[in-house]
Each structure stands twice: as structure tokens, then as C-alpha cells.
UniProtKB/TrEMBL annotation:
Residues 1-49 are annotated as: Disordered. This is Cobyrinic acid a,c-diamide synthase. Residues 35-44 have a biased composition (Basic residues). It comes from Nocardioides cremeus. It comes from the Bacteria.
Amino acid sequence: MARRVSMPAADDLFRPTAPKQAERREEPQPEQAKPARRSRPSGRVRHDEKMTVYITSEELLAVEQARLALRSAHGLAVDRGRLVREALAMTLADFDAHGEDSALVRRLAEE
């Protein structure tokens, strides 16, 4: 006699991953509406948002070489996402601190 395998229900497969409305924090008041930039990236946590960025093969090669150099020379095993989040956090912190004198503004103005 054939044995039937128990499969999960659709509700189990497609359950919401975000907290319910009652569990969410209250929305910020208008005076708190300015987004606060973090000085450190989020690191190894679950990320709820996704952003796709297209880069050239040379840029990807540079990211991979930096990742491998961090691993071999400094003993830091980081993935590409963490490396990019760290670089982004450093760039945004510099922009917050220096405004129009930041490296970000200078480089974007060169284009």
C-alpha cells in the first residue's frame, strides 16, 4: 500500500513575515519624520527590504577582490552584501558630517 506524504498547507507556505499591525511601533510624529541615518550598517541580520543595483563586470571584480583581500589579509569573512552595506554606511556618514564637502558630492559632481 502506498504511503501518502503530508505536505504543508498553503497558509504555512505563504504566511506573512512582517509583524501584525498591532505589534508594529507607532508611526513617527511629524517632528520625527526626518530619517535618522545610522553610522553603522546592519550587519548580519535579516533584512526586510531589497534593492537591486546593476554594476559593470569591472566593479563586480573589484568588489570580489576586496572581499577576498578582507578574508586573506584581515581574516574577515564577509559576503558582498555586507561589504556593500558597510561602504554605503561609510559614504552616508561622510555625507551627513560634511555635506557638500563630502566625497559623495565631489564624485557625483565630476560626472
